[in-house]
Design a protein that fits this description.
With 354 residues, this protein is mainly β. The protein has one domain. Helix content is 1%, strand content 46%. The protein is built from one helix and 24 strands. The strands form five sheets. Strands 1, 2, 3, 6, 9, 11, 14 and 15 form an eight-stranded mixed beta sheet that branches. Strands 8-7-10-4-12-13 form a six-stranded antiparallel beta sheet, with no helix packed on it. Strand 12 and strand 13 form a beta hairpin.
Length: 354
């Protein structure tokens, strides 16, 4: 069930036409059937806590970059409700990172907080899910080059999951110790990308799973997909995994590709390039965002036409990335060209650590 509404943070409503959710998850939740969600999870079981997706500057640059600034236009969220006959309360929270890279749990670490949001209610339960799209009436500025966190604040739910309560669809990491046969497929030793914050105790803890949620941004989004030909963690053997496996693939066994998503153009194509790192001062294009790649090492990898708002460009087949590259970091960025208007917009940049 899909619901969309505008949060009255100001008088002007933001349009959804050109927006894309920045979701770090094995699959594209808007265009693919989700088969890699292991379970529904809460940040801290039945307690009140905030659940976050880590957007480290070492991994991502320019999320929501339109040229003048980087911003979030809303939030996209797959909610699981144990009894859809009753509405559930939640909040949206964006935070900065502290000096260690963990979420800044202090009041000064809050970029934005919206409280008192509720899911709809409906017949046909008890259990069900809602795809929530909360649109900010005024864009919220987010860091372009610094680490930050995007997340959901869930109130305490003492009886969850026995009777009622809200949770989030998640993909378990291999280190979760759960019996899940689907989920994330990162290499051994990779860090968790999900965190929980207990605002009462003022503590932050990393979690071995990721959620189907993310900021809605007015820019195309790019994710790297790790390809393990022997794994069925996505629900299909050998299918790319665009979450942790794209960030931390197992080399040389795994392959790699790029997926670019953009709901704006009716017709268009994506161009993808890669480099050994980022440029100290990104090149600014006022209408199209910033180009983050190191110009001295940038190589155009390929292009592909958009189909249903997404394009996939192969980088390397499984077993073809030399073992000598283990330990190296590569950054990738794309651009989407609208075939009708010929206007181009840059995606975010993402690194993969071999």
């Amino acid at each position: 069930m899909l619901t969309s509404r505008t949060l009255a943070l100001a008088a002007v409503t933001a349009s959804l036409a050109a927006q894309n959710p920045f979701v770090v998850f094995p699959q594209d939740p808007e265009r693919q059937t989700i088969t890699s969600a292991s379970y529904v999870r809460r940040p801290n079981w039945t307690s009140q806590a905030e659940g976050f997706q880590q957007l480290a500057a070492d991994w991502f640059r320019g999320i929501g970059d339109t040229g003048p600034s980087c911003s979030a236009r809303g939030f996209y969220y797959w909610a699981a409700d144990e009894n859809i006959a009753t509405a559930e309360t939640y909040g949206i929270v964006l935070r900065t990172a502290d000096p260690t890279g963990a979420p800044d749990v202090t009041a000064t670490g809050v970029i934005m907080r919206v409280t008192g949001l509720t899911t709809p209610s409906g017949a046909g339960g008890p259990r069900g899910s809602w795809i929530m799209i909360d649109v900010f009436a005024t864009p919220v500025a987010v860091p372009c080059d610094q680490s930050w966190y995007q997340g959901i604040d869930l109130p305490a739910s003492p009886n969850w999951p026995a009777t009622d309560g809200l949770s989030m669809w998640a993909a378990d990491a291999l280190t979760a110790g759960s019996p899940a046969t689907v989920g994330e497929n990162h290499r051994v030793g990779a860090p968790n990308v999900t965190w929980s914050v207990d605002t009462v105790l003022g503590t932050a803890v990393s979690r071995p799973w990721d959620y189907i949620f993310g900021a809605y941004v007015d820019a195309p989004v790019l994710h790297l997909g790790g390809i393990d030909p022997l794994s069925s963690r996505t629900g299909t053997t050998g299918a790319p995994s665009y979450g942790m496996n794209g960030l931390f693939p197992e080399i040389p066994a795994h392959g790699l590709n790029v997926r670019v998503q953009d709901s704006a153009p009716a017709q268009g194509f994506a161009i993808v390039a890669g480099a050994l790192g980022s440029f100290p001062q990104p090149l600014v294009f006022p209408l199209g965002g910033r180009f983050y790649l190191d110009l001295g090492t940038t190589v155009v990898i390929g292009f592909a036409s958009l189909a249903n708002g997404a394009a996939t460009v192969p980088i390397a087949a499984p077993g073809t990335i030399p073992a000598a590259m283990v330990g190296l970091r590569f950054m990738f960025q794309g651009a989407v060209i609208d075939s009708i208007t010929t206007i181009g917009r840059f995606t975010n940049a993402q690194t993969t650590l071999f």
